[in-house]
Amino acid sequence: MDERKRESIVAYLRRRMADFGIEPEDIATSIAADQERLRAVRFRDASGNKWDGKGAPPQWVVQAISAGQSLEHFAIDGASNRDPDKRTGADWRNDPFAGSRLATIKTEDVSA
Q1: Under 8 Å CB-to-CB from 50, ≥6 apart: which residues?
Q2: Beta-carbon contacts of residue 20 (< 8 Å; ≥ 6 apart)
Q3: Distances (CA, A) of 66 to 30, 38, 86, 88
Q4: Sign of the CA dihedral with 44 first, then 45, 48, and 54 last
Q5: How far is it, in rounded angstroms, from Cα 80 to Cα 82?
Q6: Which of 12-21, 35-44, 67-76, 80-89 is predicted least confidently?
Q7: Which residues on adjacent β-strands are paired with residue 51?
Q8: Domain residues of the chain, as ranges?
Q9: Is residue 61 within 8 Å of 51, Cβ to Cβ?
Q10: Which of 33, 45, 50, 58 would bridge with 41, disulfide CB 3.0–4.6 Å?
Q11: What is the CB neighbour count within 10 angstroms for residue 75?
Q12: Could you give the CA distance from residue 41 to residue 77 in angstroms, rounded to a whole number?
């Protein structure tokens, strides 16, 4: 991106922030809160569902455990030490639905 375009975008964002009464400190606080919330995540599935391990387990955890999957399968090991720019792939080796009809159904095949 060239410098003129960048400066134009920055000026636009500053105007919009002023229109809504948003200060740079507000954005910094929001980003810090988001990062803290992400650090608190202890379990994640291949679809991106997350759970901090506190309170009642969400439906995706209940369904996975009912299907025979262990909770440890979804544990995030060293989540804060991960490279944030590196995409994580799904590990399908222990997928309880692999090879079953559930893994092969296409959304257009499912009737309402």
Answers
A1: 41, 43, 44
A2: none
A3: 36, 26, 31, 25
A4: negative
A5: 6
A6: 80-89
A7: 43
A8: 1-39, 43-84+93-112
A9: yes
A10: 50
A11: 12
A12: 10
Residue written as tokens 């400066």? 7
Distances (CA, A) of 5 to 10, 17, 49, 53: 9, 18, 36, 44
- pLDDT cut 70: percent of the chain above it: 72
Tens-digit pLDDT profile for residues 23-67: 999 999 999 888 877 778 889 998 989 998 888 999 999 999 999
Give the tokens for residue 106.
Answer: 């296409």
The answer to whether the CB of 45 falls within 8 A of the CB of 77 is: no
User: What residue type is assigned to position 24 of the chain?
Assistant: P
Alpha-carbon span 59 to 8, nearest angstrom: 45
